[in-house]
């Protein structure tokens, strides 16, 4: 009997060994796929190839060849014809919040009326939108209820469709800082809101980082300044002492975790860079000294220009979408966005692509490219920011960011030439992650 079942299993596995298993859940089967690419930007930063082939095996790139290789050379291989497309590595967004893209007053209400289970389904929907937009990897920077940590593991197992996720768990700030979830609520609700992500003083800040590490996070996110969306009229300048910033960053590094720092004001950027921050998120106000510190430390700047799209769209729909204390900061951010990028690009500050989707809409991550070009980047540099640079920032350069032998088969294709017009990236027709086709093909 057992022999019979075993034989049946063997027969079933022989049947499924053919090439057409792309849509099944789970890791890609170890088959061979050949992609014929009209143009291929296999290594962003270098010139694209014309008429090239990608040989993929076991979810990874095995070889890149000039010309269209014959399928006969690889018996049983499936061939994907993208001869009329521009093919490039899957895009990487270094700053998202997958759990929601409802913000302002609507976001506050959802926090006290919906369950963690509700948020989990919403996060999964947003993850799927993100993947279908051509973003095969994201760094999720801040979610308190564990939803995105679970989603990270579920997508890795192939249970649900979504990008690879590098997750920060709960973002950390001082009490009354940007990550204090109690801000804006009355005293009854305030006492019910968890505060384990808040710290004051050295010991408390070390503990806050260790708590996130014990939850299995990949990266640590902290805030050294106030934030636009926090419901408090305390501005967007520095809100943390030296000992607190130092304790947070040193503790994360002690465990080998990078630190992403939310900072708007130049004083908070300097504080973070002085103690070894790996990236500055938003970085809205930069002066000569901040730029010098970026160049000296080698930290990345993640501009998140797309936030203004989210603000403008929400306010157009409802002028009262935000509390008055928040609205004043939004108006400021809309006026000033892009100035820091325009200032830092010619100086050679390293830029990694990041949208802050959640503030802006999920699935429209590529809108950021248009703003990056508007504020001084070439299309080629913007593409580098969303591939090789972001891979470097995430510590995944050996796996993603370019299409070279041994790296993941995370591949997208568009019509038109994104090196001429980045807007073509808003319409990604083909998406493959780890060798599995999710869209097109
Ligand atoms: Zn954010």
Which short descriptors sum up this protein?
2 domains; 14 helices; alpha/beta; binds zinc ion; 441 residues; Urease, subunit C, domain 1; five-stranded parallel beta sheet; TIM Barrel; globular; disordered N terminus
Write up this protein.
The protein is α/β, with parallel strands linked by helices and 441 residues long. The chain has 2 domains: 2-90 and 404-439, Urease, subunit C, domain 1; 91-393, TIM Barrel, CATH 3.20.20. 35% of the residues lie in helices and 19% in strands. The protein contains 14 helices and 15 strands. The strands form 3 sheets. A 7-stranded mixed sheet has the order 3-2-1-4-13-14-15, with no helix packed on it. It has a 5-stranded parallel sheet with strand order 8-9-10-11-12, sandwiched between helices. Strands 5-6-7 form a 3-stranded parallel sheet. Helix 6 (202-214) runs parallel beside helix 7 (242-254) and helix 8 (266-274) runs parallel beside helix 9 (288-297). Mean pLDDT is 92; it is low at 1-30. It binds zinc ion (ZN). The site of zinc ion has 4 residues, from loops. Zinc ion (ZN) binds at residues 95, 97, 141, 356.
């Amino acid at each position: 009997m057992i022999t019979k079942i075993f034989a049946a299993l063997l027969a079933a596995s022989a049947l499924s060994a053919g090439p057409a298993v792309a849509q099944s859940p789970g890791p890609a089967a170890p088959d061979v796929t050949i992609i014929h690419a009209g143009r291929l930007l296999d290594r962003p930063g270098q010139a694209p190839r014309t008429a090239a082939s990608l040989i993929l095996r076991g979810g990874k790139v095995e070889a890149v060849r000039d010309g269209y290789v014959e399928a006969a050379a690889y018996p049983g291989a499936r061939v994907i014809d993208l001869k009329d497309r521009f093919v490039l590595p899957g895009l990487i967004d270094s700053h998202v919040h997958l759990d929601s893209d409802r913000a302002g007053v609507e976001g506050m209400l959802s926090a006290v009326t919906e369950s963690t289970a509700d948020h989990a389904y919403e996060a999964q929907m947003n993850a799927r939108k993100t993947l279908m937009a051509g973003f095969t990897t994201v760094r999720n920077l801040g979610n308190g209820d564990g939803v995105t940590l679970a989603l990270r593991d579920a997508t890795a197992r192939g249970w649900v469709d979504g990008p690879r996720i590098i997750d920060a768990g709960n973002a950390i700030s001082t009490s009354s800082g940007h990550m204090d979830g109690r801000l804006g609520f009355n005293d009854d609700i305030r006492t019910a809101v968890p505060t384990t992500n808040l710290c004051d003083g050295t010991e408390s800040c070390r503990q806050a980082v260790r708590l996130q590490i014990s939850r299995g996070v990949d990266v640590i996110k902290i805030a050294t300044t106030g934030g636009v969306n926090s419901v408090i009229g305390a501005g967007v300048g520095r809100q943390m002492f030296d000992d607190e910033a130092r304790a947070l960053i040193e503790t994360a590094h002690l465990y080998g975790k990078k630190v992403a720092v939310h900072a708007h004001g130049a004083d908070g950027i300097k504080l973070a860079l002085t103690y070894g921050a790996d990236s500055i998120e938003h970085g809205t106000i930069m002066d000569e000294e901040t730029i010098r510190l970026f160049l000296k430390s080698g930290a990345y700047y993640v501009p998140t220009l797309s936030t203004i799209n989210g603000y403008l769209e929400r306010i157009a729909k409802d002028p009262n979408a935000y509390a008055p204390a928040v609205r004043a900061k939004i108006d400021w951010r809309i006026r000033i966005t892009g100035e820091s990028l325009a200032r830092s690009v010619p100086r050679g500050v390293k830029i990694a692509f990041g949208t802050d989707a959640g503030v802006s809409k999920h699935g429209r991550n590529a809108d950021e490219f248009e703003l990056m070009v508007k504020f001084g980047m070439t299309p080629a540099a913007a593409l580098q920011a969303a591939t090789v640079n972001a891979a470097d920032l995430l510590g995944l350069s050996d796996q993603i960011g370019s299409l070279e032998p041994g790296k993941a088969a995370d591949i997208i294709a568009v019509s038109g030439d994104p090196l001429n017009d980045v807007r073509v990236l808003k319409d990604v027709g083909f998406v493959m992650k780890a060798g599995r086709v999710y869209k097109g093909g």
